[in-house]
C-alpha cells in the first residue's frame, strides 16, 4: 500500500462532506448525514463509525487531512455566536476523531483562501446560487463529470424542480478543501 491518500472535510453539525484523493487525483466523495441526530455524543459516535467504515472499505492509509476552518468573525446575516461556538466545539470533537483514526494532524484551511488558491471566483450577481457555482467548478475540474445525486422537490413554490441533494454542497466544499490542501502541501515541499 504505497499510494498516498489525502482526505478533505467540510464539518458541520448537520452534514459532513468528505473527499478522498489518491496522490493529487480525485478518488471519491462521501457524506455523513447527522440531521436526525440531536445529541453531540451520538453524532460523534456516528462520525467515528462512518469514517472508520470508509477507511476500512476503501483500504486506504491517509497521509494528509485537510479540514475547512471554522468562521472566526461575524458577518451580516450569518451565524450567531451560539452557532459558531457549537460548530467550533463539534469541529474539535470531529478533528480529534479524525486524528485518532488516521494518525494525521489535521491542517485547517480557510474556505476563501482555498477558493482563491484554486482560482474559484464566485459571481455574486449570478442567478446561480454560490453553492451550485462550487459544484459547477468541481465538475469542470474533474476529468469526468461527477454523478451528483439529485432530487425532485415535492412541495412548495419549487415543486417539481430538480435540485442537488443537500449533501452535495458539503461534498463539493470538501473537494475544494482537499484539493487546495494538496496544492498547499506541494508548494511548501
Which percent range describes the beta-strand content?
Answer: 15-25%
Q: Which structural category do the helix and sheet elements fall into?
A: alpha/beta
CATH topology: Nucleotidyltransferase, domain 5
How far from one another are the termini?
22 Å
Figure out the total of helices: 5
Largest sheet: 5 strands, mixed
Q: Which residue ranges are poorly predicted, with pLDDT under 50 across at least 5 consecutive positions?
A: none
Classify the helix fraction into a percent range: 40-55%
Say what oligomer this is. Answer: single chain
| Secondary structure tally: strands | 7
Report strand order across the widest sheet. 3-2-1-4-5
CATH superfamily: Ribonuclease H-like superfamily/Ribonuclease H
Order of helices and strands: EEEHEHEHHEEH
**Radius of gyration of CA atoms, rounded to a whole number:** 17 Å
Mean pLDDT: 91
What does this structure look like?
By secondary structure, the chain is α/β, with parallel strands linked by helices. The chain has one domain (5-187): Nucleotidyltransferase, domain 5 (2-Layer Sandwich), CATH 3.30.420. Helix content is 44%, strand content 21%. It contains five helices and seven strands, in the order E-E-E-H-E-H-E-H-H-E-E-H. The chain has helices at residues 40-58, 81-102, 111-118, 130-141, 166-187, and strands spanning 5-10, 15-22, 25-33, 62-68, 107-109, 150-152, 162-164. The strands form two sheets. The protein has a five-stranded mixed beta sheet with strand order 3-2-1-4-5, with helices on both faces. Helix 3 packs across helix 5 (166-187). The longest helix has 22 residues, at 81-102. The radius of gyration is 17 Å and the shape is globular. The two termini are 22 Å apart.
Amino acid at each position: 500500500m504505497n499510494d498516498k491518500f489525502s482526505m478533505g472535510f467540510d464539518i458541520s453539525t448537520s452534514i459532513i462532506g468528505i473527499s478522498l484523493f489518491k496522490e493529487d487525483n480525485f478518488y471519491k466523495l462521501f457524506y455523513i448525514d447527522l440531521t436526525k441526530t440531536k445529541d453531540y455524543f451520538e453524532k460523534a459516535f456516528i462520525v467515528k463509525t462512518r469514517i472508520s467504515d470508509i477507511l476500512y472499505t476503501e483500504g486506504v492509509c491517509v497521509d494528509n487531512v485537510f479540514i475547512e476552518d471554522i468562521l472566526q468573525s461575524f458577518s451580516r446575516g450569518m451565524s450567531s455566536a451560539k452557532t459558531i461556538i457549537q460548530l467550533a466545539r463539534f469541529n474539535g470533537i470531529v478533528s480529534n476523531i479524525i486524528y485518532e483514526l488516521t494518525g494525521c494532524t489535521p491542517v485547517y484551511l480557510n474556505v476563501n483562501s482555498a477558493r482563491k488558491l484554486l482560482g474559484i471566483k464566485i459571481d455574486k450577481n449570478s442567478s446561480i446560487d454560490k453553492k451550485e457555482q462550487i459544484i459547477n467548478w468541481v465538475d469542470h475540474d474533474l476529468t469526468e463529470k461527477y454523478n451528483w445525486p439529485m432530487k425532485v422537490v415535492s412541495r412548495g413554490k419549487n415543486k417539481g424542480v430538480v435540485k442537488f441533494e443537500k449533501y452535495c454542497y458539503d461534498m463539493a466544499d470538501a473537494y475544494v478543501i482537499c484539493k487546495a490542501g494538496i496544492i498547499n502541501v506541494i508548494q511548501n515541499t
